[in-house]
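RETRY 2/3 - previous attempt timed out on the joint model. Re-submitting the same 872-residue input unchanged.
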Amino acid sequence: MFTTQLCRHLERWSVGSATRFINHNRSVCTSVSVFANKTKQIELTRNRYPGLKKGPYSDLTGQDVDYFSKLLQGRVITDASDLEGSNTDWLGTCRGSSQLLLRPKTTDEVSKILEYCNGRKLAVVPQGGNTGLVGGSVPVFDEIIISTQLMNQIISLDDISGTLECQAGCVLAALDSYVSDSNLTMPLDLGAKGSCHIGGNLSTNAGGVRLLRYGSLHGSVLGLEAVLASGEIVDCKSTLRKDNTGYDLKQLFIGSEGTLGIITAVSILCPQKPKSVSVAFLGCETFEIVLSLFKEAKHSLGEILLAFEFMDSASMDTVRDNLNLTSPVSEFPFYVLIETGGSDGKHDEEKLTAFLENQMSSGLIADGTVATESTKIANIWGLRERMAEGLMVDGYNYKYDVSLPLSKFYQLVDDMRVRVGDLATRVVGYGHVGDG
Amino acid sequence: MFTTQLCRHLERWSVGSATRFINHNRSVCTSVSVFANKTKQIELTRNRYPGLKKGPYSDLTGQDVDYFSKLLQGRVITDASDLEGSNTDWLGTCRGSSQLLLRPKTTDEVSKILEYCNGRKLAVVPQGGNTGLVGGSVPVFDEIIISTQLMNQIISLDDISGTLECQAGCVLAALDSYVSDSNLTMPLDLGAKGSCHIGGNLSTNAGGVRLLRYGSLHGSVLGLEAVLASGEIVDCKSTLRKDNTGYDLKQLFIGSEGTLGIITAVSILCPQKPKSVSVAFLGCETFEIVLSLFKEAKHSLGEILLAFEFMDSASMDTVRDNLNLTSPVSEFPFYVLIETGGSDGKHDEEKLTAFLENQMSSGLIADGTVATESTKIANIWGLRERMAEGLMVDGYNYKYDVSLPLSKFYQLVDDMRVRVGDLATRVVGYGHVGDG
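RETRY 2/3 succeeded.
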């Protein structure tokens, strides 16, 4: 049972949910992926990078395991095969050799774990859904893995203010489904939603496809609780939409990748769930047209614009060649996915139709399709969201998630193509234009 | 000329723009105002509270003034009558006795001022538009006033991403007017917009009436620059919508009231300007109905709901008795102001009409009016926005801006009425329901 749970992450994909105490170079948003002609092998990270040296940390002893076994009755994993899934990242590019995975259920247990580890100088790596694509959620050496998997309780939902309080290990899609009964939605959405944990979303300041509409987590997170390496519990658990008491310390934990502590609970503002959702998929001749469309979409679709994504033809080739997905439009150098949603389906449809007609007649778009039915919407989103999965089929993956000023967004991909030449199977560019 | 500029703040009103190095108890959102039967006198703050003692700071000398005069050629004010306006807060409840006001134009000048003051142990108080209602923008003793009034340059506007960069002394309404030419709007709006500075808005984490729609400044501020007490310039000037590089230190400056440093420049995300705006003003029998309407409005109006404000009958009496304003609806215990705005006027009107008809037929509202014409909209907003001004006519003002869970929002006002009995002219409750 447990093995199944732990290994399920191997079926997961996309960005989002890693917290850890060892810092990584990181960046966000638009992805430039370079695939080398190399067969994938899950080599130990420490072997691949022999220059990496373990810090001045202790080695795990039987006494340590005994301590945790007493603390977490039946929630301590030491079996090597059971640990395999949590030692390996989803992309299969990083593998650690942790001998211990802990599954606390409460903040107090996390506190006791960290206090003990701090006293014993044992390195730890927090792990949420292990859906991250930059290796941040798995050990580099033999760090103890602290999983938030069993910290999955919803604490409260105030359906007037839209404030949800929950533990850090709640899965994003489960939360979305829960608040959906109160006509609310989660303010972030990303491909990994079926597995990623809200605590990991905060720790990595995950943006996702709806950042454009609902803004960053710095705005929608109202409060959080975290445990420092010392075991001290930091309580910033406000549920008020605005709370100006003292410094807003919780903001530091958002995006700090677990380097300041482990997030154990979250309160977050949930916007109204759109009553209707439509998706348009369009072909464009140049990246400049993609940017013009973005500006026009913001202007014409305004408050109903939920997402604006782009992918280039090499990206489309990837999901077509490797996943047998079909493009709903003819061949173009660039494709744009626009999602709209609002409180009145008829109004939304009118706005989207007017926008598309205007852009067709002004010549910005030559081909496109619109979907309002959920299966068709899912198919179109699949082209964009299954990109990481499609790219893995090619082999070893160099993935750069970067934020750049919009006008210089695509230059990086062109430069990269020149730079790597025929060393790579393909160089693809895709991502959230809405993030800037 | 200069006297005029400095004293103009006496015509200003409402919350928003103070930065200072001396911390205050503070809070936000909904206002409970208690007015004592007392004639207003602008007494020196240090005389009113003789228990307050100046910290271990130096006294200003002629040499200090010489230093600043050389640094800020012609932008150093020492004349007592010229200083009067900046020594006094807008409500006329706090008055300091600063002998020096400095008007830097650049971050570098602010840096040199603070470095000098730090070396000489001279206390300072930063001042934006001096529109604050809690005395945070004026000296308590003889602090040097550092005004951002001349730091009013717009640095750049990227109309694709909607990112505005400007100096901290830009007036909010001037920025709104500037970005309006690119079909954008500022993500915050408050009564003091004609005077308050964007730097002060950030320092106090001003919410205002559109927090409901555009979220808090923690989400919409993309970057800032600040000068620490040592003179060190902290550069967090990202203009990217998402930037996960390192800790998000800028967040600490937002709402820290100048205790960490003086904000000198800001980059902020501007949403699309609504193409049409409508305002409804409604009468309600109970506060519970106000909350039910809020929930329904969020559900039915969704993405076009810009503001949801309430005021009680004592608030309405205040603006009617003291400012001769007229209510557009008959008498009720509570009133609600709803503002909507979107990208299609016809759609917005249909949504608002449908919402109001539903609430009328379900009996939640008994009387109401809707305005789409700008003068009528301004008149309705006047009832709510000129509240602080109306209350000042009554005399000395105890003002509590608090955030509470919505369900307990109004209990505080009722409790306060019992507590103060006939000691007060009136106890009124009003504010942003949308803030939570």
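Residues 1-40 of chain A have pLDDT under 50 and may be disordered. Closing ticket.
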